[in-house]
Every structure is written in structure tokens, then in C-alpha cells.
């Protein structure tokens, strides 16, 4: 039986998570009003690439796989074993995906990570597209913030970069390697004291003579303020090959239980120091709060909560968090959302695996 979902009040994250859950539960889905909450609804290049990648990796069936489509049907079509249709295994293998534009490669990678829990062998996917573009996590956020956090809970994954892709040319290339993983219960409620910061500043080779990566990092360090001493654990400045000019900065804050990541992208006419200051301003706001994870990590962790169970304190109940929780409940996951002043605790006591 096909589950019908309504994306009229959601964006691309809803589509990506719905496809992953469809595969994990071996349950066909029909998604109507795809990206209905966006100025240009329907499948864009990046969303179409996610759908096509899922079809290839899972040997699935899909309709509506075309640009602008506002209704998509997806059937993972696993064969039942011993009468059990749910949570069948994926064989892994090697795949390549070309988004064809500067569409986000990191968001495509994000959609695939949960599949690690049903892999039989390693899955390797090389994605060509935008690695550091607007409205998506820069590559270094995924490599140095999200993946280290998820590895604590059992995710076996690595992300390598061959070439950076900035807007508008894209052309970046990154490779995700996923190994079969068993996730542990996630518990991220009490932050603990902030301990250290790490800076990852990247410039395209065309900007190297302006010392953009160095100036971004300097801008961030001068702007970071907090009444608790923070050790500078790592400062990495990279000059990267790219088809067009661009830069990015990621500030990572480590503390007792989790990490926070704060990002900024270079823009034409924007001083490099300002790029660093913008990321530092976001880090300062985080440090003034109590949540163990940043606001963007909050909704990205929801699918892993559905798989492993646990609790996460989020800094705010954003639209992404609300629609993400609603989507999990559509698949039968019992989600408890308790607001605590400005923060909230999201809990899943009975994950999809059936563990209590």
C-alpha cells in the first residue's frame, strides 16, 4: 500500500527524508505538492538528482522524475524475505551522480546517510555539483561537524573532496563512503561547558592572492566572544581548485556532549573579514544558549532519532523541525516535543528498528 504525503507546507528536506524513510521501511510513497512552501515549487535540479540517485541505488521505481514535477511516486520495491517486507538490505556498490548545476551536493549526501543502517556492504557515491552554495551546509560543515557527531553514535561514513564547487558554475566533486552501520541511542540534552573551537576556511585558487581564507579566519577569531576560555583546537585554511571564484568558512564549537557548526559564504563585494564575522556572530548566539547542537543540525538529526531512538535538545522549533517531526509521525514514529523556554527536547522512545 502506498503512503500519501503532503509537502505543501515543506521544502526539499521533507522530500529527501521521505525518500529515505520509504527505503528504510520498504514502503512506497506518493508525495504531493512537492516543495509547496517554496517560491518555485516542484523538483529542482538537486531534488531530481536525489530522486534519481535513490532509484539507482535501490533499483527502485519512480514516476514524476522530471524538473518541476509537483507529484512524485517512489517504490523501493524490495523483495520480501520470509514474508517480511520491512527493512530489507541494500547491496551497496559504486555510483556517480551529476546534478548538472550548482545544486547542493551536500544535501544529496545528507539524504543517503540513513541508508547505512540497511547496507550489506560499502556504498560509495561520487556527486558532482555545488559543494559550498547557499541554502545548504558547506562541505566542511558535513565533514567536520555533522559526521564527527554521528560517528559517536555508530554511523560509519566518510566524505572526501576532489574539487570545490561554488555558485554559479558548480562543478565540485565529493565522494561519500558509507559502511554498514548499527546506530546507538542518541542522547544530546545537557550541553556541558564549551571547550574549544575549530576553524575551516576555504578560498578558491583564484582568490589566493587576496588571502581570503586567512582574512576570513581572522575576522571570525576577532569576533568570537564568550566569558569562558575557548581553546583554538584547529585552524585550517585551504586553497582549492574550483571552476569559479568562491569561499566559505565553518566555525565548529566543541563542548561537553555535542558540537555546533556555524557557516558563512563569500559573496561578490563582501569583505572576507565580514564572512568570518557572520559565522562568529552565529557561534556567539549559540554560546549564549543551552542547546548541545546548532539549529541546522537539529532537523538533520530527526531521521537518526527515528532509527536509533533518544533525545535531543534543539535551540529552536524551526519550520524544518516541525515538518520533520510531522513526517516521522506519518511513518508511525512516536515523537514527543517538549518546549523548554526557548529550546525544546525532541524524544523518540520507540524507533523504527523496534527497539524500546
Task: List key phrases describing it.
356 residues, alpha/beta, Translation Initiation Factor IF3, UDP-n-acetylglucosamine1-carboxyvinyl-transferase, Chain, Dihydrodipicolinate Reductase, domain 2, four-stranded mixed sheet, 9 helices, 16 strands, 29% helix, ATP binding
Q: Please, could you describe this protein's structure?
A:
The protein has 356 residues and is α/β, with parallel strands linked by helices. It has 4 domains: 1-82, SepF-like protein (Translation Initiation Factor IF3); 89-182, RNA 3'-terminal phosphate cyclase domain (UDP-n-acetylglucosamine1-carboxyvinyl-transferase, Chain); 192-287, Dihydrodipicolinate Reductase, domain 2 (2-Layer Sandwich), CATH 3.30.360.20; 291-356, Translation Initiation Factor IF3 (2-Layer Sandwich). Helices cover 29% and strands 28% of the residues. The protein has helices at 12-25, 45-58, 105-112, 139-151, 212-223, 272-287, 295-300, 302-308, 319-330, and strands at 3-6, 29-32, 61-63, 71-75, 93-98, 123-129, 157-163, 172-178, 186-188, 194-204, 231-240, 247-255, 259-265, 310-314, 335-340, 343-348. The strands form 4 sheets. Strands 1-2-4-3 form a 4-stranded mixed sheet, with helices on one face. A 4-stranded mixed sheet has the order 5-6-8-7, with helices on one face. Strands 9-14-16-15 form a 4-stranded mixed sheet. α1 packs parallel to α9 (319-330).
Question: Which helices and strands, and how do they pair?
Answer:
Blueprint (H helix, E strand, L loop, with lengths): L2 E4 L5 H14 L3 E4 L12 H14 L2 E3 L7 E5 L17 E6 L6 H8 L10 E7 L9 H13 L5 E7 L8 E7 L7 E3 L5 E11 L7 H12 L7 E10 L6 E9 L3 E7 L6 H16 L7 H6 L1 H7 L1 E5 L4 H12 L4 E6 L2 E6 L8
Parallel strand pairs: 1-2, 5-6, 9-14, 10-11
Antiparallel strand pairs: 2-4, 3-4, 6-8, 7-8, 10-12, 12-13, 14-16, 15-16
Helix pairs in contact: 1-2, 1-3, 1-9, 2-3, 5-6
Amino acid at each position: 500500500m502506498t503512503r500519501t504525503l503532503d509537502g505543501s507546507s515543506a521544502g526539499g528536506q521533507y522530500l529527501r527524508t521521505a525518500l529515505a524513510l520509504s527505503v528504510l521501511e520498504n514502503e512506497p510513497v506518493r508525495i504531493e505538492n512537492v516543495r509547496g512552501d517554496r517560491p518555485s515549487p516542484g523538483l529542482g535540479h538537486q531534488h531530481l538528482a536525489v530522486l534519481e540517485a535513490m532509484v539507482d541505488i535501490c533499483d527502485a521505481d519512480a514516476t514524476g522524475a522530471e524538473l518541476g514535477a509537483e507529484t512524485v511516486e517512489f517504490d523501493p520495491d524490495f523483495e520480501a524475505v520470509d514474508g517480511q517486507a520491512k527493512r530489507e538490505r541494500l547491496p551497496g556498490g559504486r555510483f556517480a551522480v551529476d546534478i548538472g548545476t550548482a545544486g547542493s551536493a551536500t544535501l544529496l549526501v545528507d539524504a543517503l546517510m540513513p541508508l547505512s543502517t540497511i547496507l550489506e556492504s560499502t556504498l560509495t557515491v561520487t556527486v558532482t555539483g555545488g559543494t559550498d552554495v547557499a541554502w545548504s551546509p558547506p562541505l566542511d560543515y558535513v565533514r567536520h561537524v555533522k559526521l564527527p557527531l554521528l560517528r559517536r553514535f555508530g554511523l560509519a561514513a566518510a566524505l572526501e573532496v576532489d574539487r570545490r564547487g561554488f555558485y554559479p558554475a558548480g562543478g565540485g566533486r565529493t565522494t561519500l563512503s558509507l559502511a554498514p552501520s548499527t546506530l546507538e541511542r542518541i542522547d544530546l540534552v545537557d550541553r556541558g561547558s564549551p571547550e574549544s573551537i575549530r576553524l575551516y576556511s576555504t578560498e578558491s585558487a583564484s582568490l589566493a592572492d587576496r588571502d581570503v581564507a586567512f582574512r576570513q579566519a581572522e575576522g571570525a577569531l576577532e569576533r568570537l566572544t564568550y566569558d569562558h576560555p575557548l581553546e583554538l583546537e584547529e585552524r585550517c585554511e585551504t586553497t582549492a581548485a574550483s571552476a569559479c571564484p568562491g569561499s566559505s568558512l565553518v566555525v565548529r564549537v566543541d563542548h561537553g556532549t555535542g558540537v555546533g557548526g556555524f557557516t558563512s559564504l563569500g559573496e561578490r563585494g563582501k569583505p572576507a573579514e565580514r564572512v568570518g564575522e557572520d559565522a562568529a556572530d552565529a557561534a556567539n548566539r549559540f554560546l549564549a544558549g543551552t542547546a548541545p547542537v546548532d539549529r541546522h543540525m537539529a532537523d538533520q538529526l530527526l531521521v537518526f532519532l527515528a532509527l536509533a531512538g533518544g533525545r535531543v535538545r534543539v535551540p529552536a522549533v524551526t519550520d524544518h523541525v516541525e515538518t520533520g517531526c510531522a513526517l516521522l509521525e506519518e511513518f508511525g514514529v512516536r515523537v514527543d516535543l517538549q518546549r523548554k523556554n526557548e529550546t525544546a527536547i525532541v524524544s523518540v522512545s520507540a524507533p523504527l528498528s523496534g527497539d524500546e
